[in-house]
Amino acid sequence: MWQPDGVQTASTTALLRVMNERAVFAAVFRLGRASRPELAQLTGLSKPTVAVALTNLESAGLLRQTGSRAGSAGRSALLYEVRPEAGYVLAVDIGRAYVRTALADLVGDVVARVDDPACGPGADDLVAQLTRLADELTATAGITRADVTLAVFGTPGIHDEANGSLHLAPNLPGWEERDSLDRLAAVAGPAYTVENDVDLAAIGEATYGLGRDVPHFVYLHIGTGLGMGIVIDGKLYRGFRGAAGEIGYLPIGEGDPLLHRPGVRGRGMFESVASAAGLLATAQRFGLTGARSAKDVLDAARAGDGPARRAVEQEVEHLSRAVAGVAAVLDPELVVLGGGVGSHAGDLLTAPLLDRLGHLVALEPPRIEVSTLGGDAVLLGALASGLAAARDLVLDRAATA
């Protein structure tokens, strides 16, 4: 659409200013502390342009001066750094047994953390618990919930953005209702995102764990449920409906007979036999007595118990067939095992799993390694994704102001 020349010039100038400020801010964040000459060299912008961007970013409260550094000609150059308190990210991992929360400032330092036993699956109870935890975290940091730039909630299932609900999350009853996720705005304001917990674990692994510098890998969560986070070309792959990686529904193994009851769709065949509950049920079917959890089965297998070892062998068989199928389709370089079973059974699973894959895949199988992040994978992924988005948000708000 045609506009007067003055309007076009103003729009172009404003756009260039925003682009320059983003480039300078990103460069300061990358370097940690930087001078104007360093920023000019790194961004390719002129020193006067960098000076204007620094002034604007400092006025907006996003950067601050932090001392000086002597230059080659004896003159000192002012140094700038990102103001940590310019923004905050609230990360939440909603698990079946625990709710894990953390609050980080804009440079990624965790300023408060609280882990709390899950109070119950009801939506109202969960929102009340999350609100209480957010109040505790922000009070510790000396801020209020209104100061949180962005909240990231990691949950089981699939976030349906069209109607604001969760699908395939049987452990969170009530959240499958339309607009149910809107109530999360009461926790930390309207700026929030909802992500699949296993996808967040894959992001955490790519940012802080074994997936760093690995462009093609998958994160296999083995715990209360089964799921997979898929990273292709260094980016999380979500699929058409965000359901990529829901491998619990793979038709592998003889499933739980209860799955055949009419209306039962909460669990898939693979999950029913290879999850923590499936491992326990298999061990009990083989004759193991006294075990009340998957951990008991794993401990018994390490101690040489026959039924427990047979159950672990069956687990390896199920997992190997699933991973072989994934390898045939995606060709990942690395498979990271996580979750309650995956993180604590590496000594029982990795070598047998790799050996079995050698007989199932045509090419060399992917590396199999146990996550180094343990139970923090989801929370770290929420922080990583939230921090990247929060930095864009504070820049957008500064540009608008």
Key terms:
single chain, 401 residues, alpha/beta, Arc Repressor Mutant, subunit A, Nucleotidyltransferase, domain 5, 3 domains, 5-stranded mixed β-sheet, 13 helices, 15 strands, disordered N terminus, WH_DNA-bd_sf, ROK
Task: Write the SSE topology.
Blueprint: H1 5-31, E1 34-35, H2 36-43, H3 47-59, E2 63-70, E3 76-82, E4 88-94, E5 98-105, E6 110-117, H4 123-141, E7 150-155, E8 158-160, E9 165-167, H5 185-188, E10 192-196, H6 197-208, E11 217-222, E12 226-232, E13 235-237, H7 269-274, H8 276-285, H9 294-302, H10 306-330, E14 334-338, H11 339-342, H12 346-360, E15 367-370, H13 377-400
Parallel strand pairs: 4-7, 7-10, 11-14, 14-15
Antiparallel strand pairs: 1-3, 2-3, 4-5, 5-6, 8-9, 11-12, 12-13
Helix pairs in contact: 1-2, 1-3, 2-3, 6-13, 8-9, 8-10, 9-10, 10-12
